[in-house]
Design goal:
- This protein is mainly alpha-helical.
- The chain contains eleven helices and four strands; from the N terminus they run H-H-E-E-H-H-H-H-H-E-E-H-H-H-H.
- Strand 3 and strand 4 (128-130) form a beta hairpin.
């Protein structure tokens, strides 16, 4: 089988630009060359079908590349699908940055800055970043915080520190899962479907539990610090002296 790029694109139900983009991202092997002509083979057709299948399951191109290269094995597919599914927020509408700016009345350059700083976390969808009603709500909530009188530079600095601490916590949590759940299951003497099922079950148990623990802890510590502040700020020495 020898196909020109246009024929491969038609057979795979994608555009020529998509084929070339996949090739640039090293998802497709280079075509065979016959002088200046590039020819694609059955291997490319099969690879395109595999890429499209994994995309439909919600996997990012980076994850797809790792599957194609063998860095992730078939037992990891269920876990990757569970992670992608957890990132989905129902059947919510997805929209781009310009639409987010229109819905929040916040200039797109400011939203871009929030994304770069990790304060606004969109979703990767078909090679681009997309947003949902949840992102509209978080931006709107931020505007309400500003209305209380908190200065924007100090608030952004606090948010950046929180993001850094959250990422560090998340990295450690994922590493724990990888070390004590995923890696042992990958090498366990079990049928592949059972290894995959156990991995997904552990992830689906841990994700809500860890999320709830983190939310609980932050809220309780925040309220505790607020209480301690109220008990000490502008303290009157007469109120803290020994009881007669």
């Amino acid at each position: 089988m020898r196909l020109r790029v246009e024929e491969l694109a038609k057979a795979s139900d994608v555009s020529v630009d998509t084929v070339r983009y996949y090739q640039k991202q090293r998802l497709l092997p280079p075509p065979e060359r016959d002088g200046r002509l590039a020819w694609y083979t059955a291997e490319h057709v099969d690879r395109m079908a595999r890429i499209r299948e994994l995309q439909r399951r919600g996997f990012s191109l980076a994850v797809i590349h790792r599957f194609l290269e063998g860095d992730l094995d078939p037992a990891d597919e269920g876990l990757a699908a569970a992670v992608a599914e957890a990132g989905e927020e129902g059947e919510e509408e997805l929209f781009d940055m310009d639409e987010l700016a229109a819905r929040t009345q916040v200039p797109a350059p400011m939203l871009d800055a929030l994304v770069r700083d990790g304060l606004l976390v969109g979703r990767q969808h078909e090679g681009g970043q997309r947003f949902t009603a949840a992102d509209v709500a978080i931006v709107t909530g931020g505007l309400k915080v500003l209305e209380t009188g908190l200065p924007l530079p100090e608030l952004l600095a606090l948010a950046r520190r929180h993001n850094a601490a959250t990422r560090e916590f998340a990295l450690e949590a994922v590493e724990l899962f990888d070390t004590y759940v995923r890696k042992p299951l990958r090498t366990a003497d079990l049928p592949e479907p059972e290894r995959a099922d156990r991995m997904v079950a552990a992830f689906r148990t841990l994700l809500p539990a860890v999320t709830e623990l983190a939310t609980y802890h932050f809220r309780r510590v925040l309220l505790q610090v607020a209480q301690e502040h109220l008990e000490s700020v502008g303290e009157d020495p007469q109120l803290t002296g020994p009881t007669p």
